[in-house]
Amino acid sequence: MFIIDGRQSPFFQPISRRSCLKSCLYGLGGLTLGGLLRAEAAAGVKSSRKAVINIHLDGGPPHQDMIDLKPDAPAEIRGEFGRIQTKIPAYSICELLPQLAARADKIAFIRSLVGSASAHDAFQVQSGYDEKDLKPIGGRPAMGSVVSLLQGSTADESPAFVDLMQGRPLVRNSARPGFLGQAYKPFRPDLSAMFARKLEPGMVKELEARGMDHAIQLTLPEGLSADRVFRRDQLRSTMASLQHGINQASSGDSMDAFNQQALQMLTSGRFAKAMDLSHEDPAVLARYTMKNSEKHVPVGTSDGAEATKKFLLARRLVEAGVRAVSLSLSDFDTHSDNFPRMRRVLPILDHGLSMLLDDLHQRELIDDVSIVVWGEFGRTPKIASKTGGRDHWPRVGMALLAGGGMKVGQVIGSTGKDAGAAASRPVHVQEVFATLYHNLGIDPEMTILDDPTGRPQPLFSNIKPVAELL
């Protein structure tokens, strides 16, 4: 079942004139999907097997409660969690991450991430920049949009960039194309029927204020029958009868290859199948399913145990040809009840990410697919006595990296006694992006994008990939 404008639609209904028009003309911010594909082709395209899965820990993960524990610090800093030894000698992480500890040889742990813009959304960890950068001309593009421009192809059966983020990063449109324009917006399926994520009251109004330009995309309209769509002769016949109403100067036979591909993306082929978890091997689906899931019932805006399957969905999309997938896990915004919240959400991260790593290794995809796990910023060293929470702390944070042919099984950087600042090897957010671009075969310094004013914009200036990972 797919969704458009928040309404569920079964496949088993006859196609209507209105539904077919909406399927063909439902725009990405006013641009039809066919027009989007045409614009991509005009920009020049390439092909690549490489991909990135960008996992956003929505709210800002408490690094000192996850991968940078301070057991010798005072109680108001070290917190409640014990340590568990990893496969990396003399390195321990939170006891709530035992599966990741057992796979630490497959992960690079960055404990000294710096350069946070201190913005409460996912834009910086989608682009590497503050959203104010180049804002007068549209702002910087998300990495997925850049990948769509440079490595997407109109011959692909799947979109190059898919945004699966929910909650805060969805409302604030974190995965946006910036000055590249609407042709490189991500495709944004509605996951609400698969993974519930309640919005904060203020964000409900914020999302409503954005209007249809920020609507969920790449979904089938109400009443569109997949069975009929698969029968191309009937579909083209229907389109021919509608074309006069769309453009009196043309006929159904003149529908170009871009619109045909748009319909294929929306209604059939690898992408639609990848989005449907019922097509997954039951044994694999069972591995991604958490045991004792009743202990991880969502509270407030947090994700529940089903969220482990977001990681499976990301793998399926990569296999279907998607080059950049972004997903989110909520809620790490722990101003209050930091430790009860982490007891609910960290096991979900532990299980979902561990199964994804295993899956990519077993399918021999691990060298082609880069994974990054991070959030907006870190959390305060000292626990608030009244709320039991940790507040925003942009001075230092964390990131996990895996796959992509990187040198993993290592710890990069350190913080001081209270985990409040980088003590050694600070790693800038942009260095991580430079590494991810490098893994995709894109030179982050030599690649130049023309902005709307005609000025050349390098992806990054004077920023190198993280040398320890290459």
Considering the chains and any ligands shown, give keywords for the structure:
470 residues, disordered N terminus, 16 helices, 8-stranded mixed sheet, alpha/beta, Alkaline Phosphatase, subunit A
Tell me about this structure.
There is one protein chain. The protein is an alpha/beta fold and 470 residues long. It has one domain (46-188, 275-469): 3-Layer(aba) Sandwich (Alkaline Phosphatase, subunit A). 31% of the residues lie in helices and 14% in strands. It is built from 16 helices and 18 strands. The strands form 6 sheets. Strands 3, 6, 7, 8, 9, 12, 13 and 16 form an 8-stranded mixed beta sheet that branches. Strands 1-2 form a two-stranded antiparallel sheet. The chain has a two-stranded antiparallel sheet with strand order 4-5. Strand 17 and strand 18 form a beta hairpin. It starts with a strand and ends in a 12-residue tail after the last strand.
